[in-house]
Amino acid sequence: MNKNTKLLLITIDGPAGAGKTTVSKILAERLGYKYIDTGALYRGVAYEAKKSNISSDDDAGLEKLCATLCLEFIRNENGLRLFSNQIDISDEIRTPEMSMLASAVSARKAVREYLLSRQKELGKGKGAVFEGRDMGTVVFPLADVKFYLDASVKTRAKRRYKELIGKKDSPTLEEIEDDIKHRDENDKNRKLAPLKAAEDAIIIDSTELGIDAVVNHMLSHIINCSS
Ligand code: DC
């Protein structure tokens, strides 16, 4: 994109497996923006809670934990990695167990408050693509361009299955579909910052769309906003 165009803050919300990560990374690269995966931050909290034996409904324990956490994204030879208190936990947070635990801790006020301020800090200066569940509704209600990316449960489960195939203890397609349904239920029905499209979000259903089609569709909206 032309260097004279203004820097935007772009949000992409939606349920698990809708293609947010792939699309967000491509968009950020094409635009020369930074990419922030906010789900990784929730997974980081979940990982540390498990390590410290703090259960997902122990609000006091979670609050204490968050006060000592230092979650940072660092780019190195392995790509963009998540570090927690200087330790790379990027691989450890990508398990089905961490997906469910992240969804559980993300419903707790102490965790959301801690990550809200962390995400706002990361958004300073714009020129960023933020992916998550509440980016356009709660964290950045004034974002320049908001997308909500969705797809059918079956399609999302198949995509996750392909990503996990061959990995240690990879789950079956049925298990993934059940986890996705369960997570949708948690994320959409929690009291705090539930997963939903912002009123001014552009809604895209990727069930029948390939990555390129989604990216091009998004770029056409972004270009309109940046000129
Ligand atoms: O995007 P993900 O699958 O890595 O997210 C893991 C969980 O974190 C998700 O089930 C709900 C929670 N989450 C959230 O509540 N708000 C966000 N902005 C991002 C993720």
TrEMBL record:
SUPFAM superfamilies the UniProt entry points to: P-loop containing nucleoside triphosphate hydrolases (SSF52540)
Domain called Cytidylate kinase: residue spans? 10-222
The subcellular localization recorded is:
Cytoplasm
Q: Where does ATP bind?
A: G14, P15, A16, G17, A18, G19, K20, T21, T22
Enzyme Commission designation: 2.7.4.25
> Which terms does the UniProt entry file under GO BP?
pyrimidine nucleotide metabolic process
Provide the catalytic activity annotation. CMP + ATP = CDP + ADP; dCMP + ATP = dCDP + ADP
Q: Which domain of life is it from?
A: Bacteria
What's an example GO cellular component term for this entry? cytoplasm
Q: Which InterPro entries match?
A: Cytidylate_kin (IPR003136), Cytidylate_kinase_dom (IPR011994), P-loop_NTPase (IPR027417)
Please name the HAMAP family in this protein's record: Cytidyl_kinase_type1
Query: What family does this chain come from, according to its entry?
Result: Belongs to the cytidylate kinase family. Type 1 subfamily.
Q: What is this protein called?
A: Cytidylate kinase
Q: Which organism is it from?
A: uncultured Desulfobacterium sp
